[in-house]
Amino acid sequence: MLGLVTFGFVAMTVNWFDVSTGFGPIAAEFDLTPAATALLISVFALAYGLLHIPGGFLATRYGMRTVLAAALAVEGVGALCAALAGNFPLLLIARGLCGAGAAVFSAVGIAAVSVWFQGRFHAFALGVSAAGFSTGTALGLYAWSGITDTAGWRWSLAYGAVLCVVAAVGCALYFRVPPGQDRLEGVRIERAGLRQALGNRNVWAYGVAFLGTYGGYLTGSQLIVGYGNDRGLPGGAVGAAGFLIGIAGVPGSLAAGWCAARTGVRVPFLAGTVLMGVGLALLPLSGTAGFVALACAVGFLFNFTFAVWQSAPGRAPGVEPEHLGTAVGLMLSVAAIGSFVLPPVFGAVREAAGYPAAWAVLAAVGIACALAAFAARGERAANADASSATESGPAPRTAAPR
Known about the structure:
By secondary structure, this protein is mainly α. The protein has helices at residues 2-17, 23-30, 34-50, 52-62, 64-84, 88-116, 122-151, 153-174, 191-198, 201-230, 235-247, 249-263, 266-282, 288-310, 312-315, 324-353, 355-370. It contains 17 helices and no strands.
């Protein structure tokens, strides 16, 4: 199950970031300004931010397997439509469809890992799935640029669509819920369950706490190559920075799982957000080697923090397994505000005061938002139950009528 979901995250994030490799050709083909081209980021982020919670509702009602497969299929269809778009409005609509599928898969994918792996294996398993997010980011930002250069941006998006469809078929055929967890195959949505998920103090606290770091990374990772080129840094160094800011998240995610299993959520979360903020603020002060090293550090620290953060809903008191998708969806939706708001803020500050001020603003917002983690209370211990790495799952519960 962990392998299926992790591959799904790879496919999801490839189709998120691969479009950035075609910004130049897309702008030339449709005669776009830089601001108009940036809408391809914003429209994905808007759909991604709005549809996490509905994704959780769908998983509660129709079951995890159905929704995981459908979400990836929707993202794949959106990517294919983007590849075939004959004008810019259609391209924007297609990218919004991609964002919708990615939103639903993110929420339900994290919940799926959480219900299979609990106790001391919970954080580590989430670290592994988060490594899929990091791998897909690196592939989409770096490896896919070669496809775009060779075959064009349309074929590049089409290949990403195929990857999503393969992942969707895998989930449809092979994903299953833990033994005895019939409720995860679909139950009625009831008010008590909604209150569990949508009114949980810890979910709100960590959603706000990650808002700035989430938006800061998604802004920086997609703009760092352009920034390096604007500074006149060597092309090899700029390419390395673009690759490392994504792929460095793989060891970061795995380290987070090991760490959070031993320390809880808050301490490693705060450490990661603060250090990442420092890394962003130092980017304009770096030379060539420092620029590459800081990009690597930011990628490592973001995904370290992201993996730790994902374990918060599963440790929040009072949230039943069938409502975890909705709880994760709420947390992701709150955090995703940063991914929609911070890119234009970065652009506006850059135009008014230059790049150093813009990177400093990303850093400051991330660190300030992280303080909301102090509002979380009553975290369940990492060894709260006896689930094992053999995917034995949580204690059995039977299904209510649908």
